[in-house]
Amino acid sequence: MRAALGSALGSAATSLLAVAAMVAAWEGLVRGLPVSPDLLAPPSAVLEALLRHPDILLEHGLATARETALGFVLACLAGVVPGALLSTSALLRRVAMPWVLALQIVPKMALAPLFVVWLGVGAPCRMAFAVFIAFFPVLIGTTAGLAGTDSGALRLCRVLGASWWQTVLWVRLPYAVPQLLAGMKTAATMALLGVVIGEFVTAQQGLGYVVMFAASLGETALVLAAIVLLCGIGLVLYGAVLLAELGFARWYGAPMPAGEFG
Fold first, then answer.
1. Is residue 126 part of a domain?
2. Of 26, 116, 159, 224, which is the most exposed, with the fewest CB atoms less than 10 Å away?
3. What pLDDT digit, counting tens, does each position of 3-54 carry?
4. What is residue 237's three-state secondary structure?
5. Pick from 5, 51, 194, 224: which is nearest to 112 by CA?
6. pLDDT tens digits along 43-100
7. What values do phi and psi take at 256, rounded to 5?
8. Which domain holds residue 239?
9. Residue 191 · residue 133 · CB < 8 Å
């Protein structure tokens, strides 16, 4: 366990060094080339914007983070519960999946105005849109994970007289967790995307609103500062899923799965 944690920390440190190198290169290129700061602000100007408008960015950032977190939780519930039901029947999957896939094929931005008509311009509209965008990977991960449980392991459970709950907790869930958590990682980023799109369309608060307002004023540094905070929110939510992954690995006595940074 310690070795796996040390490997994860080493991978994170490598990623941070790579990001630092990219930021340094960005600063050098913007200052060395004839690029107007109105077109692309250097990282130093972005940092200055963060320090110059902390109250505004914090207020709008908390609004976005709150709606993103709630939208993510609702998306997970909207994906896990139907996914568990679909995993119980191949016939049910054949009937339901074409409709689910059809909803995913439709361009999401084309449906955004309908959410405004149905739910108005408040937070419920943005969170509903976030759930609509983010639930699909959780649904697929849950369905595939639970339906893909090894048939030999299930027969062994029946032979040993294991109850339904024991089979779910110690056999089906361990099989499903890797795919479920992979879907939740994707959902974490998709929920943030849904909230920001909603803020573009309907909000008078949130970092998406800051991006639109600052862009209309030509404040490129403030736009990038808001985007940096959006990245931070996404990373925190993604990191929470990684911690859950580590917790499941420890609970089931398995090595920590290699993540995208492993």
1. yes
2. 159
3. 555 666 667 778 788 888 998 888 888 888 887 777 888 899 999 999 999 9
4. helix
5. 194
6. 999 999 999 999 999 999 999 999 999 999 999 999 998 988 888 888 888 998 888 8
7. -65, 130
8. 42-251
9. yes
